[in-house]
Amino acid sequence: MAEPILEVKNISKEFTSKGVCVKAVTDVSFSVNEGETVGIVGESGCGKTTLGRCIIRAIEATKGSVMYRAADGKTYDFLQIDKKQMKDMRKELQMIFQDPYASLDPRMTVYDIISEPLKANFKLSKDELAARVMDIAKKVGLNTSYLKRYPHAFSGGQRQRIGIARALVLTPRVIVCDEAVSALDVSIRAQIINLLKDLQKEFRLTYLFISHDLSVVEHISDKVGVMYLGKMVEYSTSQELFAHPLHPYTEALLSAVPVADPDYKMDRIPLEGEIPNPANPPSGCYFHERCRYCKEICRQQAPAFEELSQGHFVACHCAKELKLRGFADIMKS
């Protein structure tokens, strides 16, 4: 059995401006085993990106802990270590950003972009630096004769390969992929997904894969966490979650997955109303205003995030009695 490399415990993040407090992430907990991919899904604004950035300390969490088992075998709370320890450990946790156009400095050549992390973390000779950059560029499918060019000369797919190379050049153990393929065309998206899977096997990488595209998440993820309004509402293996969802929100998301057949009509489950304001969330279960199974207890009391079956966690008062449809069942209807 693989051991957890990351244990996220009760992470919360609040943004306060002019007296208004927005709860972007609220008490999110889950674990990630070494070498696996955990997908985080949900609608835009549900807190997926904020969660990923809190985990690697791109932004500071309001509360919670991230227990990280480092390469030296010791376990650290990544959110509590000092700046020197974080600099030493930063090599092991990297991020691939969503926008391949905005995340690359237009004034730097591709060679400089990929080599910059190496210069910041290691004392390498010019030849050693060039060898490392060339090696990782080849592995991600970049033409090494173009490394002296600037980002504007590359397509979106090629730019994302540059971003992947920049993250991989330090040989990290954990990579947060923040909507890493959402800005790409469908054909290029498949290439990048396959590249990420190949690199994961070669380097034994652990991915936290943030996306709103459930079809991509199903393809790449071992486990999936579903977020709604800053909270984790369901967490399970990918196979179990797609076959037997326990939360009504997950069922609705599965019914919205597009099918590559123009004549096929999905039995969609429409969600009425708008997503609540995170600055003024509803009482009880955050989802109750849009849930067709809502009961009085849902309006008054927030459900606990509990393990209903082996490895399958859910936050829903009605989960034990509901018989929700999985993706295959929705397809048949």
Describe what this molecule looks like in 3D.
The protein is an alpha/beta fold and 333 residues long. It has helices spanning 48-55, 83-90, 110-121, 126-139, 156-168, 186-203, 214-220, 238-243, 248-255, 296-300, 327-332; strands at residues 4-17, 20-33, 37-41, 63-69, 75-77, 93-96, 174-178, 206-210, 223-228, 231-237, 306-309, 312-314. Among the domains are: 103-171, no CATH class; 245-332, no CATH class. The chain has an eight-stranded mixed β-sheet with strand order 6-7-8-3-9-10-12-11, with helices on both faces. The chain has a four-stranded antiparallel β-sheet with strand order 2-1-4-5. The protein is globular. The model has no long low-confidence stretch (mean pLDDT 90).
Topology:
Blueprint: E1 4-17, E2 20-33, E3 37-41, H1 48-55, E4 63-69, E5 75-77, H2 83-90, E6 93-96, H3 110-121, H4 126-139, H5 156-168, E7 174-178, H6 186-203, E8 206-210, H7 214-220, E9 223-228, E10 231-237, H8 238-243, H9 248-255, H10 296-300, E11 306-309, E12 312-314, H11 327-332
Parallel strand pairs: 3-8, 3-9, 6-7, 7-8
Antiparallel strand pairs: 1-2, 1-4, 4-5, 9-10, 10-12, 11-12
Helix pairs in contact: 3-4, 3-5, 4-5
The SS-based structural class is alpha/beta
Rg: 21 Å
**Order of strands in the sheet with the most strands?**
6-7-8-3-9-10-12-11
Low-confidence stretches: none
Order of helices and strands: EEEHEEHEHHHEHEHEEHHHEEH
Cα shape: globular
> What is the count of β-strands?
12
The average pLDDT value, as a whole number, equals: 90
Q: Helix coverage percent of residues?
A: 25-40%
Helical run tally: 11
Largest sheet: 8 strands, mixed
Q: What percent of residues are in strands?
A: 15-25%
